[in-house]
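Sample intake sheet
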Amino acid sequence: MCHYKNLLCLIFSCLVTMSALAQDYEPQKVVYHVNYGETSRINATFNNMTNHLDAVGEDAIDLKVVVHGPALEYFIEANNDLDKQIALDSLRFQNVQFLICGNTLSAYQLTRAALYEVAEGDIVQAGLPAIVALQQRGYIYVRP
């Protein structure tokens, strides 16, 4: 009988611990800011986004990524880099929207056609004002 009580106590403590670890998040609106050019840092940021999506659930999050400055080069290189294509497509498949700075495109003397899978609606005039506008609409700012 004593072993039975110990077993029940162990099961109960495991259930309490597991329920404490499980999180229920309210729906979230998030804007990630990516303006750095190091591929390893961008990949780490994409990993953060994937973890964020997994934790909250893709149906409970509206995640946008504002891309400007040297980060634009990732989208140029993705045209010929399967790993980068997979990274971008995987996030897009989870309804992540990448917003590309039009000023950066102009500075690079490029059009959106030079970027991997960027639609016309994904271009914003300027990255930083787009971030502020999203914050004014209730998006939480994240810059890993």
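Comment: The first helix runs from residue 2 to 21. The helical segments are 2-21, 39-56, 72-77, 82-93, 102-107, 127-136.
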